[in-house]
């Protein structure tokens, strides 16, 4: 049981430590055209990122596509257009703006069976769409890209349902008891 995220006599499940949100993110999806081999496709995409001096926060790949979450700012609109044009040589490119990265962090998440499912189920129950999921080999974080307008709700839902931290309004209501409410 210990290796699956449980500890103690009551076999309580360990919990992640924190949730972070990073705003001003764009999501770039590139679907490979049939003329490019997968190795050449990925190498070409990353070479174009280097040429355009674009820093990438998250990457997910498969044989035929790559998704990249990267910081967006007011001064990089021309860079984004140029990058899109450069990447179109490899396939179809789409860019989604106004996104955020929500990351669940904790060293106790390592070897914790079902934690990703718990996070994704919590967000699904709040009707939050997830555009990208990434987990590093260290297994100490799970990062998700969501619409910027859903980021705070996602953080609150994860706090309440995954970290088991009472929501802000529940904490406030615990302190406002007394005859003055009548």
TrEMBL record:
Pathway: Mycotoxin biosynthesis. Its EC number is 2.7.2.4. The keyword Nucleotide-binding applies. One of its GO terms (molecular function) is aspartate kinase activity. CDD domains: ACT_AK-like_2 (cd04892). Pfam families: ACT_9 (PF22468). GO terms for cellular component: cytosol. GO terms for biological process: homoserine biosynthetic process; lysine biosynthetic process via diaminopimelate. It comes from the Eukaryota. Keywords: ATP-binding, Kinase, Nucleotide-binding, Phosphoprotein, Transferase. Residues 104-182 form the ACT domain. It is an enzyme of class 2 (transferase). InterPro entries: ACT-like_dom_sf, ACT_Aspartokinase, ACT_dom. Belongs to the aspartokinase family. This is Aspartate kinase FUB3.
């Amino acid at each position: 049981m210990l290796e699956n995220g449980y500890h103690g006599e009551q076999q309580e499940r360990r919990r992640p430590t924190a949730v972070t949100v990073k705003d001003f993110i764009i999501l770039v999806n590139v679907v490979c055209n049939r003329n490019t081999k997968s190795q050449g496709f990925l190498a070409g995409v990353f070479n174009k990122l280097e040429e355009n001096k674009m820093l990438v926060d998250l990457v997910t790949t498969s044989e035929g596509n790559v998704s990249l979450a990267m910081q967006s700012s007011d001064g990089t609109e021309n860079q984004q257009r140029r990058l899109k044009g450069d990447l179109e040589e490899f396939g179809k490119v789409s860019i989604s703006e106004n996104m955020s990265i929500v990351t669940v962090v904790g060293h106790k998440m390592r070897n914790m069976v079902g934690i990703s499912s718990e996070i994704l189920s919590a967000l699904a129950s709040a009707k939050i769409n997830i555009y990208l999921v990434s987990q590093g080999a260290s297994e100490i974080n799970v990062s998700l890209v969501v619409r910027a307008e859903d980021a705070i709700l996602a953080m609150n839902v994860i706090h309440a349902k995954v970290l088991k931290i009472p929501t802000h309004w529940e904490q406030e209501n615990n302190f406002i008891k007394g005859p003055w409410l009548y």
